[in-house]
């Protein structure tokens, strides 16, 4: 009794089978973590970060960080994309990230988490309306006006 009961029972985490530490799943796919799952890893000995929707376990990197461990701990369990980019990290720093990669932020948590995603989504739908519907409506109005003038012309 009790074994495996505190694991990921959320249906959104159905892909979370396998070794939690390396992001592998039973089928060899990418592992997805919810924001809630990441949030609890906010301690000195256990620190996860989200950067650009990717999840990193940086517990072993804290002491090595050239910018100090304090700044990393402040971001522990949260989305550090903005602060990471604000510092203007080098390409070397970005490459270092790869070794701490453990998975991806769950799709459901990306939209409410990323302002950019929302802006892009509304931008996309706006361009759909502009590209398809606006010209179609304009053509319909033109047709009606044109027919009206032709009939007017014929009857006079
Ligand atoms: C796991 C993620 C991170 C890695 C691998 C990383 C790596 C590095 C590296 C290699 C440097 C040396 C300068 C460079 O090459 O750009 C650096 C500097 C620094 N980092 Fe990070 N960093 C990470 C996350 C963060 C975060 C989230 C913050 C802010 C909250 C931060 C703040 C700083 C600061 C303040 C410096 C010092 C910059 C300076 O003195 O010029 N880092 N980091």
TrEMBL record:
Domain Cytochrome b5 heme-binding span(s) in chain numbering: 30-106
Record family assignment: Belongs to the cytochrome b5 family.
Chief location bin: membrane
Gene it is expressed from: cyb5b
One GO cellular component term noted in the UniProt record for this chain: membrane
Lineage of source species: Eukaryota, Metazoa, Chordata, Craniata, Vertebrata
Bilayer-spanning residue ranges: 128-150
Localization: Membrane
Biased composition (Polar residues): 10-19
Region (Disordered): 1-28
Pfam family of the protein (one): Cyt-b5
GO MF entries: heme binding; metal ion binding
Protein's name according to its UniProt entry: Cytochrome b5 type B
């Amino acid at each position: 009794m009790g074994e495996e009961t505190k694991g990921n029972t959320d249906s959104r985490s159905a892909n979370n089978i396998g070794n939690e530490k390396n992001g592998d799943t039973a089928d060899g796919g990418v592992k997805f973590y919810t924001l809630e799952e990441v949030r609890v890893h906010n301690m000195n000995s256990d620190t996860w970060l989200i950067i650009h929707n990717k999840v990193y376990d940086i517990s072993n990197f804290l002491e090595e960080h050239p910018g100090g461990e304090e700044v990393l701990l402040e971001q522990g369990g949260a989305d550090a994309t903005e602060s990471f980019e604000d510092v203007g990290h080098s390409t070397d720093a970005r490459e270092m990230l790869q070794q701490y990669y453990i998975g991806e932020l769950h799709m459901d948590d990306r939209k409410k988490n990323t302002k950019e995603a929302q802006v892009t989504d509304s931008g996309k739908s706006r361009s759909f309306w502009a590209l398809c519907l606006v010209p179609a409506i304009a053509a319909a109005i033109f047709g009606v006006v044109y027919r009206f003038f032709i009939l007017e012309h014929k009857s006079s």
